[in-house]
Specification:
Number of helices: 3
Protein name: Membrane protein YhdT
Largest sheet: none
Organism: Micromonospora purpureochromogenes
Shape: elongated
Helix content: 40-55%
Order of helices and strands: HHH
Radius of gyration: 24 Å
Keywords: Membrane, Transmembrane, Transmembrane helix
Structural class: mainly alpha
InterPro entries: DUF3311
Length: 88
């Protein structure tokens, strides 16, 4: 219980209030690139054959690993192009 003689503590400013609204207002065209790693694996023509094989693996399996690399590369590119610079 608190002491009745002390005033209640006032809440301080929310440190995340400014960052959440600035992220919500980010309408960068670079963000459209994030659809690439979502849509490319949905195209069945890319993995609907057995050849070519890479290190003995059929196309389906090594393409799954390639899709991971595509997602990482795309996400990294979008992050680098949309992050806030120190002086701006």
């Amino acid at each position: 219980m608190s002491d009745p003689g002390t005033p209640p503590a006032e809440p301080g400013p929310d440190p995340t209030a400014g960052t959440a609204s600035s992220r919500a207002k980010d309408h960068s065209p670079w963000n459209w690139l994030l659809f690439i790693p979502i849509l490319v694996p949905l195209i069945p023509a890319f993995f609907n054959a057995d050849s070519p094989r890479l290190f003995g693996f059929p196309r389906f399996y090594w393409l799954q690993l390639a899709y991971i690399l595509l997602g990482v590369a795309t996400t990294t590119l979008v992050y680098q192009m949309t992050k806030k610079r120190g002086g701006r």
